[in-house]
């Protein structure tokens, strides 16, 4: 497998992103400014973090529909630990993130120990985790966080939004792990052919357990950033986020059947969607029109990728 | 001495009222309540200084053409379609406003914030909003104020300092009194009642339920709350939930409160299809068009609502007045086109009026 | 595995149990639910309540039949909720505009079949995963519907249009549709060549091709069939109430997919029955109603629902393992 073959979809996507950027910039002079682009980075951090872990999940041939609910649950727990249990805020943040990560671990456990298909397992925990968030909070918000906490969601480091640093670093780490380490190779092997992977000595279940736990961790991290950005917690936070993340990953060329996909592709997918949402809004297209365009781009991009595949006899 | 005891009792009553409100009726929020007097004596208005925000160095927009974007909680539902019509109507009447409505397709705080953020970047002069969450929306609105944009809310408020003015369709305690009084009249003082709401996290609905619980405890103490169910903003789910309530409680259920313009007609439909018209009263917030069939068949006697078209119209007028500088902090009223002078309350809110009760006699005159 | 695990040396009963294991689990769950909740509050067992549970959710069961076929063929459709919203809106608009009632019923169904046949064609010939195509379709239908209607409600529909409210022989017509379509679909899957080819394609596409089945045509056919069921579900959805909201019903696709998979349709394709998915849709409706009857705190309702789904899934997995 040559590098050119591996990056084929990514190349098309990169070209598409560049074209979209040029078109959008020509439609509105407010689009291609440092301020706007950095701000968009801030807005896409939560979906971005979740998409990174989702890439691993989908490469193994799985899916995680519960990420939005884990985000909501972590947010609620953060508020409850701090306000109702009176823990110091840093401890509350840490503990809530542990719980969110644990929720991901439970997903992994159900999937590996009981061999429940991931779609069904996370469909059930999607309802369960959201339900826990609603029950624990009794639908009440927790507000009034101290000023320093807002740094994670609203602060800047060297003129770049804090969460964009987090997203950037996380992307680099994820790219290295998936692309260059034995764990990454195990992930691909699991998705390409699970039985064969098992026979070649790869600890498939351990890999999956790690990946679903990481998915929970990313959702929990996104929750903290989200709460800090909007300064309040609500049990309905993150509803529908799973579809946004899956869309970005799939647009990035990761095969839903597993075995194929890259972090770079996911990053490009994320950027393209965010640029379209923002750029179309700036050039006067309304929200309902924008989602139609995103739907068309999703099908179109994958279609072009598939046609290229076929022409090369892949 | 007598006076003191009375004051103490009233005070205690108020305290327990508000303490109860936090848990009395499921679905209410835990903010303090302020139920109105049972006989409708208006509470003495407490003069409050302006507590809204101030835009940073706004350009002089007096009489100039301005572009305004309206970001409701969500688009594609009848209620915000109506407010959007009002906004467009006022913009057309004013002639110097370029207004459009855009927003998320589901009531989602994150998406609403993203929409507002994009419009700040695109450089609008004014933002109208109906908040999905009063606190979550505050940072992005403050950002708008910092950029010198005029910000006015309607329907669902944000924290006061994140916007300049808020056009209040009707006070929470006023709506609560109107709903509970109508229910007591139709279903009886000791009626068992249930509530169909959207979601427990929707701020306006949670506020109304808390105020209703407080007002009922004070003025209709025998009214028995049975249950609150969630039904999103979904017609079929609302119908199913209301039907389940009817089947569950049988004759113990005398009334259903519909807390949204979706839940109320669906509850009326459930009562109709169960053949319980006249036995179970439906009282709620709803738009007249959706309720006409039930009101005309005498299945529903009273529907409470403000006119959402007027609400949008007033919001647009207020925004223009703010941009022109004719509405300044400290004002006691504002001229809102064909609606006349609207009163300023609570420091930085503009009151559209009292909630309106539609009945069989007058519902035919309304079309929205 | 349903329908396929016939091994010699087992009694008929055992064979039956392993063939319809998941259906039996779901059926027993429904029975247990009726027994427990009925004991707590006998009104749960009243014919009005049972009627409302069935009639109010029949459209979900019907859509789940089509979804089951899609999943059996190894695909998925996440746009079905949006499609049902669009169908309801088209049907209501035609009815109100004064077109003949048969047109108001049939045009949206034909539209649904056409849309899904197009999706099926894309999926079959370009090999783009169905989740991608339907995710895109979800956006297109949803955005398009809002652009077209702005959420304007449709009211004043003629009485003869309201097919879901008719009650032949005292039973709501939605229930008749649910029962009839489930039986027809079950027979169709079992006894027609096309029905069997759905399982074959879902099990192993290349093996199916080798066996003389045209997998592309089967995929297009199954999507079109799914469109037919979604269309009928959409018409029932539209005519249940006096108002059509012209929006996409929230989370409907998740409910439908969950009903299919809980009903025993393996998400990996190749197995499952539509009787199971209909039973699962009924189970969900019963749980939703039962939790209210049992006075479960409304705040905890969704958590309990999630737990019950999880319990059903785990029970099924344990059963399958024991069967092996």
Commentary on this structure:
The complex is a heterotrimer of chains A (314), B (368) and C (324). A two-stranded antiparallel ribbon of chain A has the order 1-2. Chain A has 14 helices and two strands; from the N terminus they run αααααααββααααααα. Chain A has a domain at 30-239 and 255-263. The N and C termini of chain A lie close together (11 Å). In chain A, 57% of the residues are buried. Chain A is mainly alpha-helical. Chain B folds into two domains: 66-170 and 307-356, 3-Layer(aba) Sandwich (Rossmann fold); 172-305, Rossmann fold. By secondary structure, chain B is of the alpha/beta class. In chain B, helix 8 (263-273) links the parallel strand 8 (255-258) and strand 9. Chain B has an eight-stranded mixed β-sheet, sandwiched between helices. Chain C has one domain (53-317): ABC transporter involved in vitamin B12 uptake, BtuC (Orthogonal Bundle), CATH 1.10.3470. Chain C is built from 13 helices and no strands. The longest helix of chain C has 26 residues, at 47-72. At the A-B interface, helix 3, helix 11, helix 13 and helix 14 of A face helix 3 of B.
Radius of gyration of chain A: 20 Å
Amount of beta strand of chain C? under 5%
Described by its quaternary structure, the protein is heterotrimer
Find the count of extended strands of chain A (DSSP E, 2+ residues): 2
CATH C-level name of chain C: Mainly Alpha
CA-based shape of chain C: globular
Low-confidence stretches of chain A: none
| Terminal residue distance of chain A | 11 Å
Return the string of H and E elements of chain C: HHHHHHHHHHHHH
Major interchain interface with per-chain residue totals? A-C, 45 and 45 residues
Number of helices of chain A: 14
Biggest sheet character of chain C: none
- Order the strands across the largest sheet of chain A as they lie in space: 1-2
Low-confidence segments of chain C:
1-8
Number of domains of chain C: 1
Q: SS-based structural class of chain C? A: mainly alpha
Distance between the termini of chain C: 9 Å
* Overall shape of chain A: globular
> In sequence order, what are the helices and strands of chain A, one letter per element?
HHHHHHHEEHHHHHHH
């Amino acid at each position: 497998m040559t590098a050119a073959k591996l990056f084929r979809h990514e190349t098309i996507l990169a070209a598409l992103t560049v074209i979209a950027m040029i078109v959008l910039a020509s439609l509105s002079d407010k689009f291609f400014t440092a301020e706007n682009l950095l701000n968009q980075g801030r807005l896409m951090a939560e979906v971005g973090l979740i998409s990174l872990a989702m890439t691993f999940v989908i490469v193994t041939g799985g899916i995680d529909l519960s990420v939005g609910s884990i985000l909501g649950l972590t947010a609620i727990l953060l508020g409850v630990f701090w306000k109702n249990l009176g823990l110091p805020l840093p401890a509350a943040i840490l503990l809530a993130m542990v719980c969110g990560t644990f929720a991901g671990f439970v997903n992994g456990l159900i999937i590996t120990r009981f061999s429940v298909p991931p779609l069904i397992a996370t469909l059930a925990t999607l309802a369960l985790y959201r339900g826990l968030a609603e029950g624990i909070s009794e639908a009440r918000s927790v507000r009034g966080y101290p000023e320093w906490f807002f740094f994670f969601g609203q602060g800047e480091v060297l003129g770049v939004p804090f969460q964009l640093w987090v997203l950037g670093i996380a992307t680099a780490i994820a790219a290295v792990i998936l692309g260059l380490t034995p764990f990454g190779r195990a992930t691909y092997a699991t998705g390409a052919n699970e039985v064969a992977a098992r026979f070649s000595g790869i600890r498939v279940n351990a890999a999956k357990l790690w990946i679903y736990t990481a998915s929970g961790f990313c959702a929990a991290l996104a929750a903290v950033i989200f709460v800090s950005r909007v300064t309040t917690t609500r049990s309905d936070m993150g509803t529908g986020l799973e579809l946004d993340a899956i869309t970005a990953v799939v647009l990035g060329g990761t095969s839903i059947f597993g075995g194929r996909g890259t972090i770079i592709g996911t990053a490009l997918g994320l950027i393209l969607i965010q640029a379209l949402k923002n750029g179309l809004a700036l050039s006067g297209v309304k929200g309902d029109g924008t989602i139609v365009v995103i739907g068309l781009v999703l099908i179109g991009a994958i279609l072009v990728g598939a046609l290229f595949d076929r022409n090369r006899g892949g | 001495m007598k006076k003191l005891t009375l004051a103490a009792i009233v005070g205690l009553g108020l305290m327990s009222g508000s303490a109860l409100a936090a848990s009395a009726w499921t679905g209410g929020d835990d903010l303090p309540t302020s139920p109105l007097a049972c006989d409708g004596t208006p509470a003495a208005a407490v003069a409050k200084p302006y507590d809204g925000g101030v835009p940073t160095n706004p350009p002089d927009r007096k009489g100039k053409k301005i572009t305004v974007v309206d970001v409701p909680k969500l688009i594609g539902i009848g209620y915000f379609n109506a407010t959007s019509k009002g906004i467009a109507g006022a913009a057309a009447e004013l002639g110097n406003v370029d207004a459009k409505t855009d927003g998320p397709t589901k009531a989602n705080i994150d998406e609403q914030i993203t929409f507002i953020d994009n419009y700040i970047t695109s450089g609008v002069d004014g933002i109208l909003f109906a908040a999905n969450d009063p606190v979550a929306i505050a940072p992005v609105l403050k950002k708008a104020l910092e950029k010198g944009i005029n910000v006015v809310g309607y329907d669902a408020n944000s924290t006061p300092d994140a916007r300049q003015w808020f056009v209040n369709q009707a006070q929470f305690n006023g709506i609560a009194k109107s709903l509970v009084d109508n229910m007591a009249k139709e279903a009886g003082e000791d009626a068992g009642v249930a509530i169909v709401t959207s979601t427990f996290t929707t701020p306006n609905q949670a506020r109304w339920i808390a105020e209703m619980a407080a007002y009922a405890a004070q003025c209709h103490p025998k009214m028995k709350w049975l249950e609150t169910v969630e039904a999103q903003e979904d017609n079929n789910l609302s119908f199913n939930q209301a039907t389940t309530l009817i089947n569950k409680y049988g004759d113990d259920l005398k009334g259903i409160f519909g807390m949204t313009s979706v839940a109320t007609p669906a509850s009326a439909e459930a009562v109709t299809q169960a053949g319980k018209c006249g036995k179970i009263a439906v009282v709620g917030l709803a738009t007249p068009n959706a309720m006409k069939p039930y009101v005309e068949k005498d299945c529903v006697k009273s529907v409470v609502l403000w006119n959402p078209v007027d609400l949008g119209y007033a919001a647009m007028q207020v925004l223009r007045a703010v941009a022109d500088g004719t509405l300044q902090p400290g004002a006691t009223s504002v001229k809102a086109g064909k609606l006349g002078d609207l009163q300023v309350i609570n420091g930085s809110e503009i009151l559209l009026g009292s909630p309106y009760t539609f009945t069989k006699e007058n519902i035919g005159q309304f079309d929205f | 595995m349903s329908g396929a695990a016939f091994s010699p040396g087992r009694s008929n009963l055992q064979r039956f149990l392993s063939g319809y294991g998941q259906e039996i689990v779901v059926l027993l769950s429904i029975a247990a639910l009726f027994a427990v909740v009925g004991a707590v509050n006998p009104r749960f067992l009243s014919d009005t309540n049972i009627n409302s549970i069935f009639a109010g959710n029949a459209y979900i069961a019907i859509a789940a039949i089509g979804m089951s076929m899609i999943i059996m063929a190894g695909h998925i459709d996440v746009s079905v909720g949006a499609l049902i919203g669009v169908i309801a809106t088209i049907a209501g608009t035609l009815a109100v505009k004064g077109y003949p009632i048969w047109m108001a019923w049939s045009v949206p169904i034909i539209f649904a079949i056409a849309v899904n046949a197009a999706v099926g064609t894309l999926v079959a010939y370009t090999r783009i995963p169905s989740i991608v195509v339907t995710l895109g379709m979800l956006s297109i239908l949803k955005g398009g519907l809002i652009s077209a209607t702005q959420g304007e409600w449709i009211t004043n529909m003629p009485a003869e249009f309201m097919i879901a409210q008719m009650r032949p022989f005292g039973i709501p017509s939605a229930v008749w549709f649910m029962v009839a379509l489930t039986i027809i679909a079950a027979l169709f899957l079992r006894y027609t060549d096309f029905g069997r080819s759905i399982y074959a394609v879902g099990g192993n596409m290349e093996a199916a091709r080798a066996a003389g089945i045209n997998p592309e045509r089967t995929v297009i056919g199954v999507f079109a069939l799914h469109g037919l069921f979604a269309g009928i579900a959409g018409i029932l959805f539209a005519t249940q109430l006096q108002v059509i909201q012209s929006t996409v019903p929230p989370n409907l696709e998740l409910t439908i997919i969950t009903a299919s998979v809980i009903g025993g349709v393996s998400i990996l394709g190749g197995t499952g029955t539509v009787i199971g998915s209909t039973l699962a849709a009924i189970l969900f409706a019963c749980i939703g109603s039962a939790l209210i009857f049992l006075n479960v705190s409304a705040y905890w309702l969704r958590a309990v629902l999630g737990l019950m789904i999880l319990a059903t899934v785990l029970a099924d997995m344990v059963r399958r393992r024991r069967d092996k």
